[in-house]
Specification:
By secondary structure, this protein is an alpha+beta fold. The chain has four helices and four strands; from the N terminus they run H-H-E-H-E-E-E-H.
Length: about 160
């Protein structure tokens, strides 16, 4: 619940800043109005604003909603320097449960059949949290390796 509140507050603050910049052109550092020369700076600030770490709920059934709620409340965002979005989707199959899928930045990382028992839902959420966290950690390591001096070059062979 605390993470949900932080996300909502963060989104509200960013939205308020965008509205304030567009409507009043208020400069936070000097307390003065922005002039025509600062319009490029304002545009750059707005272009650089991102909402990071969204967990998007596209579940439909009670099982899917419970899975999402458990995932959302137990998710601890890792310290990474890139933005990511997590999408939770489901395909219902009556009599068998539901198939839950987790996608991070358009890459499917988790897909499992979840039974309609709360203990099984909790078990799958724990597994999904581990998979999502390890995926982001692995991606972070790959990004660092790519940016290391060893792999940087001039492009000349």
């Amino acid at each position: 619940m605390e993470n949900k509140i932080k996300l909502i507050v963060s989104m509200s603050v960013k939205l308020a800043l965008i509205i304030l910049i567009f409507t009043g052109g208020f400069n936070f550092s000097s307390g003065q109005k922005l002039d025509q020369n600062d319009s490029l700076t304002v545009k750059q600030r707005i272009d650089n604003l991102e909402i990071e770490g969204l967990i998007i709920d596209k579940t439909q059934s009670k099982i899917g909603k419970e899975f999402y709620e458990l995932f959302f409340t137990q998710w601890a965002p890792p310290e990474v320097s890139f933005s990511y979005d997590i999408l939770l989707e489901e395909k219902t199959s009556p009599g068998f449960g539901t198939q839950v899928s987790i996608t991070i930045n358009d890459l499917l990382i988790f897909q499992q059949l979840v039974q309609p028992r709360y203990d099984k839902i909790e078990e799958m959420v724990m597994l999904a949290l581990q998979v999502a966290s390890s995926h982001l950690q692995y991606y972070k390591e790959v990004q660092q390796e790519i940016e290391s001096d060893d792999l940087k070059g001039t492009g000349i062979y």
